[in-house]
Amino acid sequence: FPPAVFPLSCVVQNYAWGKVGLESEVAKLLASGDPLVQIQPDQTYAELWMGTHPRGDALIRDNRIPQKTLGQWIADNPACLGAKVKDAFQGDLPFLFKVLSVNTALSVQAHPNKELAAKLHAQFPEHYPDANHKPEMAIALTPFEGLCGFRPVEEIVSFLQNVPELRALIGEVAAEQLERSGSDDPRGVSAALRVCFTRLMKSEKKFFVDQLNMLVKRISQEAAEGKDTSGSNGDLLLRLHSQYPGDIGCFTIYFLNVVRLEPGEAMFLGANEPHAYLHGDCVEIMACSDNTVRAGLTPKFIDVLTLCEMLNYTPAPSSSKIFPAVQSQLDPNVYLYDPPVPDFAIMRIEIPASIKLYLISAMESASILLVIQGTAVGTSTAAASEMSLRRGSVLFISANESMSLHLSSPDGMLLFRACCLL
User: What residue stretches are annotated with the Phosphomannose isomerase type I helical insertion domain (predicted)?
Assistant: First the structure.
């Protein structure tokens, strides 16, 4: 029988928006997981990729499987995915599991549904490299801040009335149309919101840069005089402008909810949901795809026309963007985040210090296990030998395989397990 439980060495992506050195949760996990890893104090550590993505295929650390990536292993042993997953996703692992450490804002963007993804890939393969959708979920490891979905209309209207530079970009006709739109006509509200946001994002560059500079100057003066700038979302505006001066994305804070997550809270980003990550550390799980439509706060390719056409213009409060975890009835230590997509789910496993022996139960899906906190020795009939688990350890567990953890840490353990629940 082929080995079915083994540790992984995963791929780090050092994007410019990442946290630097040991400020980064990614770097901390790397250093804890492998004492031989040297963390560079001036290097960004943005993402840890745990999966089979072509640009970041994890390496198997098992002397029975020399020099093989996880992608190569699954291609040779597709039954390890589980029958349902193998059939539904043509023998591929359907998700990419990540840790993100965000220092500066990470692009105003949205992800297409499968129909639009196929169309964009056919037309612009250099920008949209596959035909898959890309739903995502972020679960906070530290206090985490992002933009997600359109604000309630009354909040947007308040900004239109308090931020004259924004109103100048939208134009009086569009601004008044949104102010007149009634809550009893959701389609009318969405149509007015679409017009306002599209006018903003399609503003002529010199005009919006002039307005942005005027706004930054005004808020800076007000802040220096000790005035309250919250009516203009002043603190966040100045922070984003310092990171991306002259970028139209700075104005999106007046349309999109600011969502703040505490550790363990999650945000699900379905198709056509406008969003951006602003700051903090999280675990993220996503469908395997590179399809991202961006419109600001990024040096990458921007596709404003596609973004404005595709977005979901349904306003909702920021509290509605927090995705709940459900405590398992079978195991009270497990909290399940199960979004409305088939590609992935994720479990948060909190093992208290009072438990010294814990079973990672078998599932019908292959899974990837990440240790965030605690130490244990893992044993499994499917593993080559006992496995020492500590902060930063990553394991691949084939479908229908279980593993026992013999805990040795005084504070218990915190684990995340990425899987596919078909």
Answer: 169-256
- The per-residue pLDDT of the chain, averaged, comes to 95
- Whether residue 417 contacts residue 367, with contact meaning beta carbons closer than 8 Å, is answered with yes
Establish whether 294 is a catalytic residue: yes
Domains of the chain, first to last = 1-151+255-299+315-345 (2.60.120.10), 152-253 (1.10.441.10), 346-419 (2.60.120.10)
* Residue type (1 letter), 366: A
Confirm if 419 and 365 have CB atoms less than 8 A apart.
Answer: yes
**Residue 151 DSSP code:** P
pLDDT at 1: 56
pLDDT tops 80 at residue 9: yes
Which residue is listed with tokens 């008044």?
176
For residues 86 and 386, what is the distance between their CA atoms, to the nearest angstrom?
28
Task: Assess contact for 43 and 329: CB atoms under 8 A.
Answer: no
Closest CA to 417 of 358, 371, 359: 371
Among candidate residues 294, 348, 391, 417, the one labeled active-site is 294
Task: Judge whether 48 and 56 are in contact, CB under 8 Å.
Answer: no
pLDDT over 80 at 184, yes or no: no
Would the pTM of this model clear 0.85, i.e. be above it?
yes
pLDDT digits (tens, 9 = 90+) for 104-159: 999 999 999 999 999 999 999 999 998 899 999 999 999 999 999 999 999 999 99
Name residue, tokens 């595709």. 310
Phi, psi for residue 30 in degrees, rounded to 5: -60, -45
Write out the binding residues for Zn(2+): 109, 111, 136, 275
Q: Using DSSP, how many helices (H) and how many strands (E) does the chain show?
A: 11, 27
